Amino acid sequence: MVMAVSAVHLESDAFLVCMNHALSTEKEEVMGLCIGEVEESRIVHIHSVIILRRSDKRKDRVEISPEQLSAASTEAERLADLTGKPMRVVGWYHSHPHITVWPSHVDVRTQAMYQMLDQGFVGLIFSCFIEDKNTRTGRVLYTCFQSAQAQKGSEYERVEIPVHVVPREAIGRVCLESAVELPRILCQEEQDTYRRIHGLAHLDPVTKIHNGSVFTKNLCSQMSAVSGPLLQWLEDRLEHNRRSIAELQREKEALLRELAVL
Amino acid sequence: MIGPFTGLFHAARDPPRTQSAFMSQNTLRRKSVPATARDSGIDRDVFIMAASISGYTFSSVCYHSANSNSDHEGFLLGEVRQEETVSISDAQISSSEFVQIVEIHNHEPCAQLFSFYDYAGKINEENLNNVLKDRRKNVIGWYRFRRNTQQQMSFREQIIHKQLTQLLGVPDLVFLLFSFISTANSSTHALEYVLFRPNRSRYNQRIQLSIPNLGNTSQQEYKVSSVPNTSLNYAKVIKEHGAEFFDKDGVMKDIRTIFQVYGALQDKVQAVCGDVEQSERVKEKLQEDVNQVKQQIALRKRKTEEDRRLQESQIVDSTSTPEVSTKPSETSFMSRITFQTPSAPERPSTSPNPPSYTDLLSQGDNLLSSSSTPTNAALLPRPQAVGSPGHPTPVSLATGLSLGMPLSLGANPVNTPITPYLGNGDGSSSDSLDRQAAGQEDDDEDEDSSEYENLVSEGARLPLVPASALAQGRPAALGPDGDARGSQTT
């Protein structure tokens, strides 16, 4: 069976954002959309990802609403303008904390549905927080797949698609923007939940204080578990870049001197 | 239950009251534990170890590793703390347990392999200091990323580890090993990680590494209804005194306050992110500039060399017989065909005396150093990334290129994306996975010979591969440290 996609090339900075996102929580599946372009060779090139909110947080209900897809398309257009390349939504990714990397039946069906709109649409899954207590080994896995029916009307099955992480030494602007979106999204989710609760009129003051404290507690968790480490990583990266820049500057000057002599 | 230290506090028979005392220090302190044989001064049985690394640091290591063509290594910076947990129960007077906590805050990637040690594994302290600079005092361990290898330290790694332990003065230096493996068709990849403390006994060497995270973002803790209560007193008291918590709009003050904290933090994240983005672009541009200047230097050198040869041959021609003069140009023509250097689009085609193989080799060093800096190879996947069955033959690579990879390198198009592999992660990997899966040795004659041909044709590009390994015709058998397999001892 000839699939519409021959392989997926995931730029390493987009891969970085996926990993950050997948490792942000072990208690639920996270998801996002992949932005990029499909080449004539049927290789899907993913340049960046968009982190999404999950409205339905039930287990294995990783679905993207039409509104999210629409918003993502708008974002893709913005990226196209920014980079000068024809960008669009080319796939989706989600995480499988503590569970196998293979897509579930629901995942395969969801993927099949997206393929009806776009046969080049691909799915990525990141499996993390896999720990083997005996060997004290941890594991992170990632896979790429599409869906296909053996015959019309039969059950959809997973089709393996080769995926490679393409080196990119500098982190792109779009990826950085996506990375710092995560704390904002988490806070937004918390605010929305709290607003719904707060709107309930019949709660007595003690209950309201309780709920307010839950909000405070949850926001504190987000800050210490996500915002804080994110800020630290950004600072470390900045420092690392500054050192690299100084070295490169020295190297450039030395080379220019060498060139002048020749 | 989340958190890195879950399960560490053992339950005594009666429910104990536990309290932890934090003692921050870099060296370990024992508390009345029987003396054991001299080792690094640590009694193994008493201490439990826990280690953590942030998801962002972990991802960053994966990112740097993905950007390397070969193995990747670096240092782990952080803090080692000791916690004493005292459990008091009715059955015992008091028992304390020492928990050593290894917190990895940050990593310092090495730009290339062998940056602070040589082939024998001997560390050069000056180079080590150049790599670490002022971060040396924060080093608590080091890490290595390898492809398709086993989860144990290689001999060289052990040697390096011993020296690092001494030089850095960290008795319990840790070693984090990342091992990367892929399925034959490259659709699924696994990254395994194990944290070792090699200075301890054989039986106690591995520590579970946890990645603290948000854990449960469940919003089930919100109460949607109040506990029914008809007491008027209750309602009155909580209303009157509870009012303290709310502002005039009926919004909880704490909410506003914490939201402000969050807002300020997010603003800071945004600001630093902006700085990082700027620095990335500056770095990119500088890298491009450096590559360009290197190109120009190479071009200039070649030009002067060709001019020199031209002059020499003119002198020779004027004094020698015709037969002699045609031969050198023939052989050098042949060498030109066989030993094409990849990034030389500006090779002058009108030169009657193209550079000989030795010239290309010396140039190869320059080119290697220029293309080992990532920007050249950065926009191209590693040969095995092109979906080829495993052999990075020039044909399949050319096909890979024609598949429309974004070669927006400006004036520096790379014709063949061959990059030297110093680890096992060369193009043989997917095949070796197949063979490993089938339980066979990687002793396939045909395959090795084609890889050998590849390496010979890219001879200029692999100055770091020991000549003996090439002569064996088994580049695929190079161990993860670049040794020919036979020489590695365990």
Automatic annotation (TrEMBL), chain A:
Residues 231-258 form a coiled coil. GO terms for molecular function: cysteine-type deubiquitinase activity; metal ion binding; metallopeptidase activity. Signal peptide: none annotated. The keyword Hydrolase applies. GO terms for biological process: DNA repair; protein K63-linked deubiquitination; proteolysis. One of its GO terms (cellular component) is BRCA1-A complex. InterPro entries: BRCC36_C, JAMM/MPN+_dom, JAMM_MPN+_peptidase_M67A, MPN, MPN_BRCC36. The keyword Nucleotide-binding does not apply. Keywords: Cell cycle, Cell division, Coiled coil, Hydrolase, Metal-binding, Metalloprotease, Mitosis, Protease, Ubl conjugation pathway, Zinc. It holds the Pfam family JAB. Residues 8-151 form the MPN domain. Belongs to the peptidase M67A family. BRCC36 subfamily. This is BRCA1/BRCA2-containing complex, subunit 3. It comes from Oryzias melastigma.
